[in-house]
Amino acid sequence: MSDTDGYQERLQSDSQFLCSDQRMDTELVDRLVLQLNRIYPQILSDKEAHRFRNLSVPTKVRLADLLKHLHRKGEEACHEFYRALHIHTEDIYSSLPSRVREREVADSKCTNDKTVRQERYVLNDRGPMFFLSCFSFVVGIAILYYYGDTEGETLRCTGVFLHCSAVRLSKDARDVFISYGEVGK
User: Per-residue DSSP letters for 143-171?
Assistant: First the structure.
């Protein structure tokens, strides 16, 4: 269903599902009728509510008649039926064919948006912990290198490590990195 479809069309397409669903029992149909009657008496009058709550008529027949009646009443009546259904039974409401179609359409739009956003903003797929661990490692090496003085002598292992670390850098960056490491000796 698209966003332009009204509640009457949704009720028309969901009627068969609602009438065949085993979860739409007598108690639930009575609660729906009572809510529509008490809160919206312009939708269901007392006489109509009594007719739809008549226990001598099978529940499926009463439900089918109620849905037809609401469809004839118009858009607002259908909308209030959906609200009552949502209030009383979230699981049935969420499994309606019109709701399932809406979710599928929304999910496909959302999935397309997410892939576009991921392609645009994600530089790597390793996540923030990888960045933090690399940053912490580099800070640790820098601290060892600059503050590793013990009586005027720098730690010898940091110079070797800096030469080995420069292997994966570009040529210009490697030259700067190695010269900077040698100046510190």
Answer: HHHHH--BTTB--HHHHHHHHHHGGGS-H
How far is Cα 183 from Cα 185, in angstroms, rounded to an integer? Answer: 6
Location of structure tokens 């149909």: 29
What backbone phi and psi angles, to 5 degrees, belong to 4? Answer: -85, -15
> How many angstroms separate the Cα of 159 from the Cα of each of 89, 145, 154?
70, 8, 9
CA 112, chain centre distance (Å): 14
Confidence at 2, pLDDT banded by 50, 70, 90: very low
Compute the C-alpha angle 131/125/133, nearest 5°. 20
pLDDT digits (tens, 9 = 90+) for 15-45: 888 888 888 889 999 999 999 999 888 988 9
Tally Cβ neighbours within 10 Å of residue 72. 10
pLDDT tens by residue, 124-182: 667 777 778 888 888 877 777 776 655 555 555 555 555 555 555 566 666 666 666 56
The Cα–Cα gap between 63 and 36 comes to 13
How far is 1 from 59, CA to CA, in rounded Å? 28
- Domains along the chain? 7-95 (1.10.533.10)
Rg (CA), the chain: 35
